[in-house]
Amino acid sequence: MTPERARDFTGFKNVLKRPVLRAIVAQALAVAALLLYVQGSVALGFPLLSLWPKIALVSSIAVGLTIAFRLPKWWIIIQAALPPLVYLGIASGLPGWSFGLAFAALFLVFSNVAGERVPLYLSNATVWHALARFCEPDKPVRFIDLGCGLGGTLFALAKANKHPDSTFWGVETAPFPFAVCRLRAFLTGDPRIQIELKSIWDVDLKDHSLIYAFLSPAPMPDLLDKAQREMREEAVLISNSFEDPERPAPEQNHLEDRRKTVLHIWRGPPSKGSAK
Ligand SMILES: C[S@@+](CC[C@H](N)C(=O)[O-])C[C@H]1O[C@@H](n2cnc3c(N)ncnc32)[C@H](O)[C@@H]1O
To answer: Residue whose CA is closest, atom 20 of ligand 1?
Structure first.
Protein backbone atom coordinates (compact mmCIF):
# COMPACT_ATOMS: atom_id res chain seq x y z
CA MET A 1 0.00 0.00 0.00
CA THR A 2 1.37 3.42 -0.90
CA PRO A 3 1.92 6.01 1.87
CA GLU A 4 -0.90 8.12 0.37
CA ARG A 5 -3.27 5.17 0.47
CA ALA A 6 -2.10 4.24 3.98
CA ARG A 7 -2.97 7.75 5.11
CA ASP A 8 -6.46 7.25 3.65
CA PHE A 9 -7.01 4.52 6.20
CA THR A 10 -5.83 6.38 9.27
CA GLY A 11 -8.21 8.13 11.61
CA PHE A 12 -11.30 6.70 13.19
CA LYS A 13 -13.54 8.32 10.59
CA ASN A 14 -11.92 6.34 7.81
CA VAL A 15 -11.65 3.01 9.58
CA LEU A 16 -14.78 1.70 7.90
CA LYS A 17 -13.22 2.25 4.49
CA ARG A 18 -11.65 -1.16 4.97
CA PRO A 19 -13.99 -3.73 3.40
CA VAL A 20 -13.08 -6.42 5.90
CA LEU A 21 -14.14 -4.14 8.79
CA ARG A 22 -17.39 -3.23 7.05
CA ALA A 23 -18.01 -6.96 6.60
CA ILE A 24 -17.37 -7.62 10.30
CA VAL A 25 -19.68 -4.74 11.29
CA ALA A 26 -22.39 -6.16 9.00
CA GLN A 27 -22.13 -9.57 10.71
CA ALA A 28 -22.04 -8.01 14.18
CA LEU A 29 -25.16 -5.93 13.44
CA ALA A 30 -26.91 -9.02 12.05
CA VAL A 31 -26.16 -10.96 15.25
CA ALA A 32 -27.27 -7.97 17.36
CA ALA A 33 -30.54 -7.86 15.39
CA LEU A 34 -31.07 -11.56 16.10
CA LEU A 35 -30.47 -11.04 19.83
CA LEU A 36 -32.94 -8.13 19.84
CA TYR A 37 -35.49 -10.26 18.04
CA VAL A 38 -35.05 -13.11 20.56
CA GLN A 39 -35.21 -10.74 23.56
CA GLY A 40 -38.25 -8.95 22.15
CA SER A 41 -40.08 -12.18 21.30
CA VAL A 42 -39.44 -13.61 24.78
CA ALA A 43 -40.51 -10.37 26.49
CA LEU A 44 -43.67 -10.10 24.39
CA GLY A 45 -44.42 -13.82 24.54
CA PHE A 46 -44.22 -14.33 20.73
CA PRO A 47 -43.20 -17.78 19.42
CA LEU A 48 -39.53 -17.99 18.44
CA LEU A 49 -38.22 -19.11 15.05
CA SER A 50 -36.45 -22.46 15.05
CA LEU A 51 -32.67 -22.71 14.60
CA TRP A 52 -32.16 -22.68 10.80
CA PRO A 53 -34.62 -19.84 10.10
CA LYS A 54 -32.73 -17.87 12.78
CA ILE A 55 -29.43 -18.55 10.98
CA ALA A 56 -31.06 -17.63 7.66
CA LEU A 57 -32.24 -14.38 9.28
CA VAL A 58 -28.67 -13.50 10.35
CA SER A 59 -27.34 -14.32 6.86
CA SER A 60 -30.05 -12.21 5.18
CA ILE A 61 -29.42 -9.20 7.42
CA ALA A 62 -25.65 -9.51 6.92
CA VAL A 63 -26.14 -9.70 3.13
CA GLY A 64 -28.51 -6.71 3.18
CA LEU A 65 -25.97 -4.64 5.13
CA THR A 66 -23.15 -5.83 2.86
CA ILE A 67 -25.07 -4.44 -0.12
CA ALA A 68 -25.90 -1.24 1.81
CA PHE A 69 -22.21 -0.83 2.74
CA ARG A 70 -21.33 -1.15 -0.98
CA LEU A 71 -18.89 -3.99 -0.53
CA PRO A 72 -17.73 -5.78 -3.70
CA LYS A 73 -20.22 -8.43 -4.87
CA TRP A 74 -18.09 -11.42 -3.88
CA TRP A 75 -18.47 -10.42 -0.22
CA ILE A 76 -22.19 -11.29 -0.50
CA ILE A 77 -21.35 -14.98 -0.88
CA ILE A 78 -18.95 -14.87 2.08
CA GLN A 79 -21.44 -13.00 4.27
CA ALA A 80 -24.30 -15.39 3.40
CA ALA A 81 -22.18 -18.49 4.02
CA LEU A 82 -20.49 -17.37 7.24
CA PRO A 83 -23.34 -17.77 9.80
CA PRO A 84 -24.26 -21.38 8.79
CA LEU A 85 -20.57 -22.32 8.55
CA VAL A 86 -19.80 -20.92 11.99
CA TYR A 87 -22.79 -22.76 13.40
CA LEU A 88 -21.81 -26.05 11.71
CA GLY A 89 -18.23 -25.60 12.95
CA ILE A 90 -19.38 -25.12 16.55
CA ALA A 91 -22.01 -27.88 16.37
CA SER A 92 -19.52 -30.38 14.92
CA GLY A 93 -17.54 -30.16 18.15
CA LEU A 94 -14.30 -29.32 16.30
CA PRO A 95 -11.52 -28.29 18.68
CA GLY A 96 -10.89 -24.55 19.07
CA TRP A 97 -7.46 -24.73 17.40
CA SER A 98 -9.03 -25.98 14.14
CA PHE A 99 -10.69 -22.56 13.72
CA GLY A 100 -7.30 -20.93 14.29
CA LEU A 101 -5.78 -23.26 11.71
CA ALA A 102 -8.49 -22.46 9.16
CA PHE A 103 -7.97 -18.74 9.78
CA ALA A 104 -4.19 -19.09 9.39
CA ALA A 105 -4.66 -21.00 6.10
CA LEU A 106 -6.98 -18.28 4.79
CA PHE A 107 -4.49 -15.62 5.86
CA LEU A 108 -1.60 -17.35 4.08
CA VAL A 109 -3.55 -17.42 0.82
CA PHE A 110 -5.65 -14.25 0.99
CA SER A 111 -3.58 -11.91 3.17
CA ASN A 112 -3.85 -9.11 0.60
CA VAL A 113 -7.63 -8.93 0.80
CA ALA A 114 -7.76 -6.86 3.99
CA GLY A 115 -4.95 -4.37 3.29
CA GLU A 116 -4.76 -4.08 -0.49
CA ARG A 117 -8.30 -5.19 -1.29
CA VAL A 118 -6.87 -7.68 -3.80
CA PRO A 119 -7.88 -11.34 -3.52
CA LEU A 120 -6.20 -14.28 -5.27
CA TYR A 121 -7.76 -15.25 -8.57
CA LEU A 122 -5.84 -16.40 -11.58
CA SER A 123 -5.34 -15.31 -15.18
CA ASN A 124 -6.41 -17.91 -17.72
CA ALA A 125 -4.71 -19.37 -20.80
CA THR A 126 -6.52 -16.96 -23.17
CA VAL A 127 -4.94 -14.06 -21.26
CA TRP A 128 -1.51 -15.75 -21.41
CA HIS A 129 -1.81 -16.04 -25.22
CA ALA A 130 -2.86 -12.40 -25.52
CA LEU A 131 0.11 -11.32 -23.37
CA ALA A 132 2.51 -13.51 -25.35
CA ARG A 133 1.79 -11.31 -28.38
CA PHE A 134 3.55 -8.48 -26.49
CA CYS A 135 6.78 -10.44 -26.15
CA GLU A 136 7.92 -11.72 -29.51
CA PRO A 137 9.96 -14.94 -29.16
CA ASP A 138 13.11 -13.52 -30.80
CA LYS A 139 13.27 -10.26 -28.83
CA PRO A 140 14.33 -9.86 -25.18
CA VAL A 141 11.60 -8.76 -22.80
CA ARG A 142 11.77 -7.64 -19.17
CA PHE A 143 8.42 -8.87 -17.92
CA ILE A 144 7.01 -8.37 -14.44
CA ASP A 145 3.79 -9.70 -12.98
CA LEU A 146 2.74 -7.38 -10.13
CA GLY A 147 1.17 -9.77 -7.63
CA CYS A 148 2.14 -12.96 -9.45
CA GLY A 149 -0.13 -15.32 -7.48
CA LEU A 150 0.76 -18.93 -8.32
CA GLY A 151 2.89 -17.77 -11.25
CA GLY A 152 0.86 -19.20 -14.16
CA THR A 153 1.22 -16.04 -16.27
CA LEU A 154 4.91 -15.76 -15.60
CA PHE A 155 5.73 -19.35 -16.53
CA ALA A 156 3.53 -19.25 -19.65
CA LEU A 157 5.38 -16.17 -20.93
CA ALA A 158 8.79 -17.63 -20.08
CA LYS A 159 7.78 -20.64 -22.19
CA ALA A 160 6.62 -18.44 -25.08
CA ASN A 161 9.77 -16.28 -25.12
CA LYS A 162 13.03 -18.22 -25.00
CA HIS A 163 15.36 -15.28 -25.57
CA PRO A 164 18.35 -15.72 -23.20
CA ASP A 165 18.35 -12.01 -22.29
CA SER A 166 14.69 -11.97 -21.27
CA THR A 167 13.76 -11.77 -17.59
CA PHE A 168 10.51 -12.78 -15.94
CA TRP A 169 9.94 -11.30 -12.52
CA GLY A 170 7.13 -11.96 -10.13
CA VAL A 171 6.46 -10.17 -6.86
CA GLU A 172 3.98 -11.43 -4.32
CA THR A 173 3.32 -10.71 -0.64
CA ALA A 174 0.76 -13.43 0.23
CA PRO A 175 2.91 -16.19 1.81
CA PHE A 176 1.28 -19.28 0.28
CA PRO A 177 1.14 -18.13 -3.38
CA PHE A 178 4.69 -16.79 -3.00
CA ALA A 179 5.96 -20.15 -1.69
CA VAL A 180 4.20 -22.09 -4.48
CA CYS A 181 5.52 -19.71 -7.12
CA ARG A 182 9.08 -19.86 -5.78
CA LEU A 183 8.96 -23.65 -5.75
CA ARG A 184 7.65 -23.74 -9.31
CA ALA A 185 10.42 -21.36 -10.41
CA PHE A 186 13.01 -23.58 -8.72
CA LEU A 187 11.58 -26.66 -10.44
CA THR A 188 11.70 -25.06 -13.91
CA GLY A 189 15.40 -24.35 -13.42
CA ASP A 190 15.04 -21.32 -15.73
CA PRO A 191 17.50 -18.68 -14.42
CA ARG A 192 15.57 -15.93 -16.22
CA ILE A 193 12.68 -16.35 -13.73
CA GLN A 194 12.88 -14.44 -10.42
CA ILE A 195 10.22 -14.53 -7.73
CA GLU A 196 10.43 -12.10 -4.82
CA LEU A 197 8.51 -11.74 -1.58
CA LYS A 198 8.01 -8.07 -2.19
CA SER A 199 5.22 -5.54 -2.43
CA ILE A 200 4.33 -4.14 -5.82
CA TRP A 201 4.82 -0.69 -4.26
CA ASP A 202 8.53 -1.46 -3.69
CA VAL A 203 9.21 -2.39 -7.31
CA ASP A 204 10.89 0.10 -9.63
CA LEU A 205 8.89 -0.11 -12.85
CA LYS A 206 11.65 1.47 -14.91
CA ASP A 207 13.48 -1.89 -14.82
CA HIS A 208 10.72 -3.58 -16.85
CA SER A 209 9.49 -3.38 -20.43
CA LEU A 210 6.24 -5.36 -20.08
CA ILE A 211 4.33 -4.79 -16.85
CA TYR A 212 1.29 -6.90 -16.04
CA ALA A 213 -1.20 -6.46 -13.21
CA PHE A 214 -4.37 -8.36 -12.35
CA LEU A 215 -5.38 -6.74 -9.07
CA SER A 216 -8.72 -5.04 -8.32
CA PRO A 217 -10.22 -1.57 -8.82
CA ALA A 218 -8.85 -0.40 -5.41
CA PRO A 219 -5.10 -0.05 -6.16
CA MET A 220 -5.50 1.12 -9.78
CA PRO A 221 -5.30 4.90 -9.17
CA ASP A 222 -2.10 4.44 -7.14
CA LEU A 223 -0.69 1.97 -9.64
CA LEU A 224 -1.25 4.38 -12.53
CA ASP A 225 0.41 7.18 -10.53
CA LYS A 226 3.37 4.91 -9.90
CA ALA A 227 3.53 3.87 -13.56
CA GLN A 228 3.38 7.49 -14.62
CA ARG A 229 6.37 8.30 -12.39
CA GLU A 230 8.50 5.25 -13.16
CA MET A 231 7.63 3.62 -16.49
CA ARG A 232 9.95 4.05 -19.44
CA GLU A 233 8.49 5.54 -22.65
CA GLU A 234 8.89 2.30 -24.58
CA ALA A 235 7.42 0.09 -21.83
CA VAL A 236 3.91 -1.37 -21.92
CA LEU A 237 1.56 -1.69 -18.94
CA ILE A 238 -1.31 -4.16 -19.17
CA SER A 239 -4.00 -4.40 -16.53
CA ASN A 240 -6.32 -7.36 -16.63
CA SER A 241 -9.93 -6.20 -16.12
CA PHE A 242 -9.29 -3.16 -13.94
CA GLU A 243 -8.54 0.45 -14.65
CA ASP A 244 -9.06 3.85 -13.09
CA PRO A 245 -12.28 5.28 -14.55
CA GLU A 246 -10.73 8.75 -14.16
CA ARG A 247 -7.88 7.69 -16.44
CA PRO A 248 -9.09 5.08 -18.93
CA ALA A 249 -6.51 3.17 -20.96
CA PRO A 250 -5.99 4.40 -24.52
CA GLU A 251 -6.19 0.83 -25.80
CA GLN A 252 -8.33 -2.15 -24.83
CA ASN A 253 -8.16 -5.76 -25.93
CA HIS A 254 -11.45 -7.67 -25.57
CA LEU A 255 -10.79 -11.39 -25.22
CA GLU A 256 -13.11 -14.22 -26.19
CA ASP A 257 -12.81 -16.15 -22.94
CA ARG A 258 -15.67 -17.12 -20.63
CA ARG A 259 -15.09 -14.06 -18.43
CA LYS A 260 -15.05 -11.74 -21.46
CA THR A 261 -11.77 -10.38 -20.12
CA VAL A 262 -10.75 -6.89 -21.12
CA LEU A 263 -7.04 -6.05 -21.11
CA HIS A 264 -6.37 -2.34 -20.52
CA ILE A 265 -3.19 -1.32 -22.28
CA TRP A 266 -0.92 1.71 -21.83
CA ARG A 267 2.02 2.02 -24.23
CA GLY A 268 4.30 4.31 -22.24
CA PRO A 269 3.51 5.99 -18.91
CA PRO A 270 -0.20 6.67 -18.35
CA SER A 271 -0.87 10.38 -18.57
CA LYS A 272 -2.71 12.30 -15.84
CA GLY A 273 -6.32 13.06 -16.66
CA SER A 274 -8.01 11.39 -19.64
CA ALA A 275 -6.77 8.76 -22.08
CA LYS A 276 -3.87 9.73 -24.32
C1 LIG B 1 -5.80 -11.48 -8.78
S2 LIG B 1 -4.32 -12.21 -8.24
C3 LIG B 1 -3.46 -12.35 -9.78
C4 LIG B 1 -2.42 -13.44 -9.77
C5 LIG B 1 -1.58 -13.53 -11.04
N6 LIG B 1 -1.00 -12.25 -11.39
C7 LIG B 1 -2.39 -14.01 -12.19
O8 LIG B 1 -2.70 -13.21 -13.07
O9 LIG B 1 -2.71 -15.21 -12.22
C10 LIG B 1 -3.56 -10.80 -7.45
C11 LIG B 1 -2.36 -11.17 -6.63
O12 LIG B 1 -1.73 -9.97 -6.21
C13 LIG B 1 -1.23 -10.17 -4.90
N14 LIG B 1 -1.02 -8.84 -4.30
C15 LIG B 1 -1.95 -7.95 -3.91
N16 LIG B 1 -1.39 -6.84 -3.42
C17 LIG B 1 -0.05 -7.03 -3.51
C18 LIG B 1 1.08 -6.24 -3.16
N19 LIG B 1 0.96 -5.03 -2.63
N20 LIG B 1 2.30 -6.71 -3.40
C21 LIG B 1 2.46 -7.95 -3.95
N22 LIG B 1 1.44 -8.77 -4.29
C23 LIG B 1 0.19 -8.30 -4.08
C24 LIG B 1 -2.30 -11.00 -4.23
O25 LIG B 1 -1.80 -11.69 -3.11
C26 LIG B 1 -2.69 -11.95 -5.37
O27 LIG B 1 -1.92 -13.12 -5.36
So the answer is: 199
